[in-house]
Structures are given as structure tokens and as C-alpha cells.
């Protein structure tokens, strides 16, 4: 018990050593009160997993998707679980506006389980209880954003909280009729995804170019392939006389900025534009090594950021028309920096729905292992302010063109955008 309480004491110390200003997302008093509540809730010794289930209840209060207590080596542990013959919950799901758990797409192993069916229970546990248990441990800026992450990571979170039953008894509500199924768990768990599954290009009706990029971070052997793909894409668009282009980053949770600054911005922006207006950074040992800002270690520096994103390396392949950037429920981190920079400079049109994440994001995350439990605490060390300034920082991005997103039919939103472009093309 004393081990858990020791780690709870350590958490604010680590936060203060990394974060430049944790009140950006959580008030110090709220953090202290929540830690005290969790400390009082420790009644007996806990395993590592039990400790995560307890301490991860801080995650929603951090109100930042870069700020989280995680179960260590989770991906490797799930891979080992599957290698040992274990399974994961098999259905792709989403949470609707009323927080009901729904099937995202018709289940290929049992086509009686249809897209949009409501899941009432899993293994006899009410879906309401399951969803509340997951959301009470999910990180993210806002409730809406946490619901989106919970949908994407449902099978992982279910395994952490409820374990693996091999097969899963699910109770479904379909057309006001309650149906019961037993579904075999899946051994599929996507981690090291091939580049071909993360990017896509095509030419849609009306000769509209379409480029999808699902992340801005790649392993070294994928980076060259990514930029080759991007270069070929813009050459192809030029050859096909593409005028307007759609950039789909609805599933892109971010990464590093050079992917969009070198691979997308030069081909859609008409002139260089500001990246940020202001920054605030904790000069940790790592940040001093990364640079470029220098100063006394552990101090906090802030100031204006005047660097612009250059757009001259387009090789004559810049599009002549408009760029429509699709924001989605999980667009985050570097993707938000991309979207806000383009929007504030009026170099493109943001399309979709606000996803709940703050439009001024954080970055340069650092992780520390909690001494007693071995759990991982990840904290951002840098706060970005969008080019237009701090006034809109706490609010989500407001799209220039609002088109509703349906988790079960993502293509419907794209089709509506294509129709809009065709209607507004000279």
C-alpha cells in the first residue's frame, strides 16, 4: 500500500520537473485533490495491473492527450498475449453522441452483427459499465476527444480492464430486438503498420485529387518511402491536371512536423506562413540536447516564435486550385499544428467537425517510470500557441466548412465534400 502512495506522491514532482505549466490543462488544486482521493482509496497491496487500473483514473483530469499514465510495454504485452494463444475483443466499435456503444462496421465473421447495432452487454457486463470504466481512465483534452480515443482503443482497454475470455458473449440491440451472439476473439492487433495502409492517393470525380495520410511519424526505413510516395503523388496530380485537392488527416494523431512541412505545405500553400506565434518550454536535459532553445537546465523559457514554413520546394508541382483539409475525431498533435497554421494563414480550407481537442496543443513529451509500481508517466514539456494567438487556444478548431462525420460511414463525409467542391467549381 505504501508503494502506491509513494508513487502518488512522486507524480506531481515529476510533472513539475517536465511540464512548463501544468495549469495549462489541470489546476494544481484539482490534481492535489484527486491524488489525495486515490491515496485514500488504497486499501490493500496491488499488482502492477491493479496499480494501473487505480492510478490511471488520473488520466481524464490531465485533460491533454500527451499527458497520461500508461501500463508499461503495453504493445509488447499484447503481442505476447496473442502469441501465447490469447485473444482480444473482436469488434470495431464507436461511442455515439449518447455514449452508447455501437458496432462500427458489419462483422465479417458473423454478418448478422450489423454496423450501428447497439451493444448492450459483453460477457454479462453492461456496456454502460464498460464504457464508464474505460472513459474514467482515458486520457485526452476533452470528453469528446476521450470518447473518440476510447472507440479506437476499445479492444486494448477492454483487455486491460476485463481480461480475455477467448470467446465473447455479446448482447445486441438490432431494430428494437435483443439478440445474443458468441463471437470468437481476434488475434489481430495492428502495431507496426505497413506504409501502404497509412497513406493513400486517388483522383476522384471532377478530377479532384485525394491524399490521405494517417500519421506524421514513421520508422526510419519508412521515411524515404513516405517522401517517395508524396513526390510521386504530386507529380501524378500535375500530370492529370488536378486543380483542387483533398488532404485527409481525419485519423492522423500526429508525429513530427517535417512530414507535412516538406511533403504537403509547399504543394498547397501560395506563400510562406507562420508555424506558431508563441512557445513555452521546460529546459529539461533532453530539450537542451534537442535545441534550439538554450538556457539553464530545468528553467522555463517562453517567447515569440517567428519562424515561417517555407513553400518554395514544390518543384513546379503546386496545385492551382483550393486545398481542402479534412479534420477528424482523432486529428491531434502535429496534425493540429498543420491545420491551425494553414487555417490562420488562409492557405487552405478546413473541413469536417470540431473534434474536441484544444487548438493549441502541447509537445516534446517525456516519460518517466514511477519508482515503486513501474508504471509510465508521460508529460509534455512544450506548449504551442497557434499563429493567430492565444485567444482561441482553449477551444477546438472550428472548421471553415462543417460537414458531419459518421463513424460507421466515413466515406459519406468525403462524398459530401466532393459534391460541395463540384458545386462551387467555376
TrEMBL record:
One term of GO molecular function: serine-type peptidase activity
SUPFAM superfamilies: ClpP/crotonase
Biological process annotations from GO: proteolysis
InterPro entries: ClpP/crotonase-like_dom_sf, Tail-specific_protease
Superkingdom of origin organism: Bacteria
Domain Tail specific protease: 207-402
Protein name: Peptidase S41
Organism expressing this protein natively: Pseudoalteromonas caenipelagi
